[in-house]
């Protein structure tokens, strides 16, 4: 589910954008900084919705850019506990339910076996959300020379299909 | 950075989808061959042949716009095509005693079966009688007729596409093998 969050931030407007209208330049800078990023304990920012307040620009000695204090609202994707979402199965792993032929099996009764396969439309309920800190561990990583191997996602969601009406959409239609 | 208000307002999928579509057309981004065709047509009669797609707002916005529009267009909420339909459904839902969040979820996922509706509304069987439930389902079916048949066809096409890819890959591998064989004979 999407919410609008109100954020205040100091934006650096580089000198080469001084000729464009200020709200265009601010929008671009905000998108550069926030779009497709996860804010810890808030959610995934999609894009800027609108600008609420633009203060006068400030200067810093030794820098040609102006710094503008902005209040804006942005679209944030943050599901709440117990929300029902629909998605597509990307991958099935051994964690959780017993995997058979790379598919999850739900034994509804002795005769019927229902499979959850990859790329199938699935409905689930949000149980838990996990924000991980993914600061680079060494200077090599920070400069982008070496990519860490097992990256934990900055924002993970644990969901369950253990209720009536959940699971593959095709089961219930 | 300071977060002033975490949850100022809720947005429905439809509103976010419209916002992203606005961004997409503003910057002339194309994500599929069909988009490309449409864009060419749009600029056929205008004097400015230059696309505006190179912007200052960074790649991340384009990436998330692409991913979200793809996700939304596969979801059932993409069936809402006009503001009028959206409004009518909301007005109809307001006649029931439902929480704001439940109405939002109904609008987002447009339930077509009783099982789906029961999942979205907590303690549905006690709060709503069967007539009300059926009324909601009927209203949804009326306003946004489902396109299940078309979806099935699309799925079939997708599978075909996959097959073709596989075949192409196999051919590619064979080609390599042949080249290797040629190389060995020359030696």
From TrEMBL, chain A:
Gene Ontology terms: cellular component: RNA polymerase III complex
Subcellular location: Nucleus
UniProt key word Transcription: yes
Pfam family name, one: RNA_pol_Rbc25
Record key words, sorted: DNA-directed RNA polymerase, Nucleus, Transcription
Span of domain RNA polymerase Rpb7-like N-terminal: 9-64
Residue ranges annotated for the RNA polymerase III subunit Rpc25 domain, each copy included: 100-172
Major localization listed first in the record, in broad terms: nucleus
Keyword Transcription set for record: yes
Annotated Gene3D superfamilies: Nucleic acid-binding proteins (2.40.50.140), RNA polymerase Rpb7-like, N-terminal domain (3.30.1490.120)
Cross-referenced InterPro entries: NA-bd_OB-fold, RNA_pol_III_Rbc25, RNA_pol_Rpb7-like_N_sf, Rpb7-like, Rpb7-like_N
GO process annotations (BP): transcription initiation at RNA polymerase III promoter
Family: Belongs to the eukaryotic RPB7/RPC8 RNA polymerase subunit family.
Name of the protein in question: DNA-directed RNA polymerase III subunit RPC8
TrEMBL record, chain B:
This protein's GO CC annotations: RNA polymerase III complex
UniProt feature, compositional bias: Acidic residues: 145-181
Record keywords: DNA-directed RNA polymerase, Nucleus, Transcription
Location in or out of the cell: Nucleus
InterPro entries linked to this entry: HRDC-like_sf, Rpb4/RPC9, Rpb4/RPC9_sf, RPC9
Disordered: region residues: 140-187
Protein name: DNA-directed RNA polymerase III subunit RPC9
Lineage: Eukaryota, Fungi, Dikarya, Basidiomycota, Agaricomycotina
């Amino acid at each position: 589910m999407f919410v609008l969050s109100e954020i205040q931030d100091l934006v650096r407007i580089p000198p080469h954008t001084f000729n464009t209208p200020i709200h265009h330049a601010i929008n671009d800078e905000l998108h550069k900084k926030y779009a497709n990023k996860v804010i810890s304990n808030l959610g995934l920012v999609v894009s800027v919705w609108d600008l609420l307040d633009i203060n006068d620009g400030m200067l810093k000695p030794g820098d040609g850019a102006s710094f503008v204090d902005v209040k804006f609202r942005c679209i944030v994707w943050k599901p709440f506990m117990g929300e029902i979402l629909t998605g597509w199965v990307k991958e099935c792993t051994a964690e959780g339910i017993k995997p058979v032929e790379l598919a999850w099996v739900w034994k509804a009764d002795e005769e019927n076996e229902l499979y959850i396969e990859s790329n199938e439309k699935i409905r689930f309920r949000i149980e838990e959300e996990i924000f991980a800190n993914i600061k680079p561990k060494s200077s090599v990583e920070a400069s982008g020379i070496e990519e860490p191997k097992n990256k934990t996602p900055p924002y993970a969601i644990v969901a369950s299909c253990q209720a009536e009406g959940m699971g593959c959409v095709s089961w219930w239609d | 950075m300071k977060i002033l208000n975490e949850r100022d307002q809720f947005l429905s999928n439809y509103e976010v989808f419209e916002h992203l579509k606005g961004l997409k057309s503003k910057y002339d981004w194309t994500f599929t061959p069909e988009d490309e065709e449409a864009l060419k047509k749009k600029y056929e009669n205008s004097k400015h042949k230059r696309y505006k797609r190179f912007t200052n707002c960074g790649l991340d916005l384009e990436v998330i716009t692409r991913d979200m529009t793809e996700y939304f267009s596969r979801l059932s909420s993409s069936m809402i095509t006009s503001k009028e339909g959206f409004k009518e459904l909301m007005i109809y839902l307001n006649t029931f005693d439902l929480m704001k969040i439940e109405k939002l979820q109904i609008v987002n996922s447009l339930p077509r079966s009783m099982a789906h509706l029961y999942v979205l509304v907590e303690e549905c069987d006690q709060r709503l009688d069967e007539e009300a439930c059926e009324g909601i389902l009927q209203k949804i079916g009326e306003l946004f007729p489902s396109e299940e048949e078309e979806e099935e066809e699309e799925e079939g096409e997708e599978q075909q596409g996959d097959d073709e890819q596989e075949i192409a890959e196999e051919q590619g591998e064979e080609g390599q093998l042949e080249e290797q064989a040629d190389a060995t004979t020359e030696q």
